[in-house]
From TrEMBL:
Pfam families: HTH_5. InterPro entries: ArsR-like_HTH (IPR011991), HTH_ArsR_DNA-bd_dom (IPR001845), HTH_MetalResp_TranReg (IPR051081), WH-like_DNA-bd_sf (IPR036388), WH_DNA-bd_sf (IPR036390). The keyword Nucleotide-binding does not apply. The keyword Membrane does not apply. Keywords: DNA-binding, Transcription, Transcription regulation. NCBIfam families: HTH_metalloreg. It comes from Ktedonosporobacter rubrisoli. This is ArsR family transcriptional regulator. GO terms for molecular function: DNA binding; DNA-binding transcription factor activity. PROSITE patterns: HTH_ARSR_2.
Amino acid sequence: MMTTFEVLAEPMRRQILDLLRERPRLVGEMVVLLSVSQPGISKHLRVLREVGLVRVRQDAQRRWYELHPEPLAEVDAWLEPYRKLWGERLDALERHLNAKKEEA
């Protein structure tokens, strides 16, 4: 089975998650919005379901797909040290720019 990181490496899967972030959707709607074939969307949805990023809800003959964001906590935890690093670098850049402004 693929990891959350491996699944998110595919741009189309990220686009699907972006759509599902807004609200639950039907496959047909995603086909139109993403200009991808129904089998193509279904393949990506299967992978997203396997890692737990997407849930499906049956409503009569329709299947609604919705985001299940909890597995993204793993990604968020991995990114946390980088946020600190970026913050420190941006703070240093701000200090540098302020010093240059004061010199002028």
